[in-house]
Amino acid sequence: xxxxxxxxxxxxxxxxxxxxxxxxxxxxxxxxxxxxxxxxxxxxxxxxxxxxxxxxxxxxxxxxxxxxxxx
Length: 71
What we know:
By secondary structure, the chain is an alpha+beta fold.
């Protein structure tokens, strides 16, 4: 997976959290451009932690896509 194949977007997460949620863009959306897969992470108040979660999800989805189907 090349870094050029991934678009990273940050956004404001919704839900409870008061003013902190409204000011900081901690939500992360990763788009794998060759396949069109999109994953998001908004669990943490930390952008860095959400970025790690999103990359883990993207890697898992790409691995599942490449795994052969056993009948």
